[in-house]
Amino acid sequence: MKQMLPRLWGNDTLRARIGNDICAHRLSHAYILEGRYGMGKHTLAMQIAAAQSCLNKDSDAHPLPCGTCKNCRKILEGKSPDVILVSREKGKAQMTVDVVRNLRTDVLTPPNDLDTKVYIIEDAHTMNSQAQNALLLTLEEPPAYVLFLLLCEDAGNMLETIRSRAPVYRLQPLPTDTISQYISKNVPGSKNTASGDTLEQVLMAADGSIGRALDLLSPKESAPILAAREAAMEFLDAVPAKGERMHRALVAFGIKREEGRAEIKRDEITYKLQTLMRALRDLIALRRCDPATVSLCFFTDRETAGAYAMRFGTEELLRLMMAVDGAIESISVRNANVRITICNMAITAGIL
Ligand SMILES: [Zn+2]
What we know:
Blueprint: H1 12-23, E1 30-34, H2 41-53, H3 70-76, E2 83-86, H4 97-106, E3 117-121, H5 129-140, E4 146-152, H6 160-163, E5 168-170, H7 176-186, H8 190-193, H9 196-204, H10 210-216, H11 219-241, H12 243-253, H13 266-288, H14 302-311, H15 314-332, H16 338-348
Parallel strand pairs: 1-4, 1-5, 2-3, 3-4
C-alpha cells in the first residue's frame, strides 16, 4: 500500500512565502512556528525540513517539497537522523535547561548525510527562562548547517531576545469546509459515526484546528459540545416565547434539575454560556454586516442563521450578549451562585 506522506492543509500564502524564502536561500537559522493545538505545526515543520533538503527545490512546479525525491521521502517518513525532534522530559510541565544543554552539544556534530540539520523543538513556550537563555547562546552563533524550528502556541511567551532572532511563521485557522474535506479523506467511516448535521456542528467547535476536530470525533468529546449547542438553541427559542419554553431552556442549561440529574457543574454551565455567546455573535454580525461576508462561528447553515437574526432586534441582541457575558464572568471569575446568576441573567435580558 502506498504510504500517505504528511502534507499541510490550507495556509497557502504561508507555504508560498516559506517556499520562496527557501528557493531564494533567504531562510534564517531559526523560526518560531506559531499556532494553536492541532493546527499543523508539526506537519509544517516537517515540510520545511523536507523543502530545505529537497533535490527538486529549484523547479518552479511547486513552492514546497516535491515529496517524491530521496531526501523528501526520508524526511517525511521520519527516517532521517538529521531531523531531530526535541521534547521536554516526560512528566515535566517545563522544558528545562538540561534538555537545551544536550541540544547545544548535539548541535556541534555536523549533519549525517544532508546539508542541513533541523531541530524541531516541541512546546517551545514551555522552556523556562534559563532554558531559553541557554538556547539563545546557540541562536547567537549557530553553525551554518543548523535550522531551529520552535513550535509554540503563543510566540508572546518566548523571550524578546529569542523572538528577535527567530521570525514567526503563524498558522491560520482552517475554514470548516477544509476540515470537513480533511476528515472525509483521512478518517474512513467518519460520515457513518455521526450524521452529517452532527458532524458539521462538532467541526464548528474545532475553531479551525484539524487536531481538535479529530479529537471531537469521539462521542465522549463531542457530547458536551452538542449539549451546549442544544442549550443555546433552546435559549434563543425561549427569548421571544418566554413562559414554558424558558423552563425548557433552564433545564437544558442544567439550572432546573430533572429527576436524577447530577449537581450543577460550573465549567459545564460556563461552556454552555460561551456557546450561546457565539450564537449571539453570529446573529449580531448578520444584522450589522453584509450577511454574505459574515463567517459564522456557531450556525452551520446561513439560512437558519438568517431566520434567527430576523427574530431579534439588534438592540435586543446586544442586551442579551451583555447579560450572558456578565453571567460568564460571575460564574467563572467571581464564583457566584450559579442558579441565582442565571436567573439574574434572564431578568437582565428581559426574559423572566
Ligand atoms: Zn523533494
